[in-house]
Input
Amino acid sequence: MPAINLDYSQFNDEKREFSVLPDGNYNVKVLGSCFEPYLSGNGVALAFRLQVQDGPHKGRILFHKPAYEHTSDKWKAKGHKDIRDLHRACGFETLDDTDHLNEKLLQVSVGIEEGRGSYKSRNIIKRAWKYGAPLDVKKKVKPLEKKQPDYDYEDDDVPF
Output
């Protein structure tokens, strides 16, 4: 067994509380993924670890856990859509191994799910799209042009 020599007095053992990130859009990198069973026993999530790449929260880790298998068809379908959206945002139309997503950059919209009971509030990934797209896109709406009618009723001789 190797002998080690560490100075344990240099470590800070205070507990750190990690707060949730504010709502917003973030540039992230995929660090990895794995299958993770739900504590409820209702299925299995495909858990992605994402790292914020810039801004005041650079280096923070986000978790995205869409359902891969679930007893509810609704949740399973939503999970599969979320998985598809994530790998499309990384540039893959189809995917057979999530290891191909490692180190890929993408953008995500992050929200906050309020905690209930003994559960703490947490971040959720609401949407994912390709890296490099403008973060705050606002669609410009053109005003509707009024067209003049093609007919004129002033010379109509039918009495009403």
